[in-house]
Amino acid sequence: MNNLTSYINNEIKPLKHTDSIAEAQDLFLEFPYTHFPVTEDGVYIGCVSKENVELLNSDAIVNETRFHFERFFVRTSTIWLDVLEIFAKNESNLIPVLDDKNTYLGYYELEDVIRFFHETPFLKEEGGIIVVEKETDKFSMSQVAQIIESNNAKILGLFISNVVGNKVEITVKISQSGLNDIIQTFRRYEYEIISEHQDDSYLNSLKERSDYLDKYLNI
Q1: pLDDT at residue 210 in the model
Q2: How many Cα atoms occupy the beta-carbon half-sphere of 209 within 13 Å?
Q3: pLDDT in tens, 89-139
Q4: CB neighbours of 18 closer than 8 A, spacing ≥ 6?
Q5: Closest by CA position to 166, among listed 132, 137, 191
Q6: Residue 13: DSSP 8-state
Q7: Are strands 155-164 and 104-109 parallel, antiparallel or unpaired?
Q8: How many other CB atoms sit within 10 Å of the CB of residue 180?
Q9: At the N or C end, where does the chain have fewer CB atoms within 10 A?
Q10: How far apart are CA 88 and CA 107, in angstroms?
Q11: 35 pLDDT exceeds 80?
Q12: Distance from C-alpha of 143 to C-alpha of 146, rounded to nearest angstrom
């Protein structure tokens, strides 16, 4: 699988701070971007958004509108999950990419990063997904890995998918479809199972017994 940095795009050069707003407006008319980077002497200074540019005087210079700039970016070392998060937080389909010395290298397009995501084992490989929850101060990644590997399964992907109050939610993809033993082990370690699984025989058994008891009490 390619490294995410292989998706850095340089097809369109960034706007210069001396360009006119009319040039920026033309760029957004030609390409379906929500934002586009601006540089000054080759240094990234922020992004202009399509929404703002449409409202500005076309005779103005880009540099005169610095207070409208949005200054999000990623580095070549930023992992793909964090890149996706920055796309989402900024409601953008383009993100500038800088190296560790803040040199502008190009940009990522959202479509390319999603394509990269689809090629990761988390989505590409067959397996089962479990979502579990536990108190933040009682949770550890190493424990989650131990639970899964002690049941002879391999982790294809693992990330913190939500944090609410003092609880953390973890999404795990594993390399097997029979999840019941792993689910029961998570329960023994006091994890709450958030996801639903057809092969969770423990829950199914409890439900069947509960239904039987309800039926018996209603006789």
Answers
A1: 54
A2: 6
A3: 999 999 999 998 888 999 999 999 888 877 777 667 777 888 899 999 998
A4: 61, 62, 63
A5: 137
A6: P
A7: unpaired
A8: 16
A9: C
A10: 16
A11: yes
A12: 5
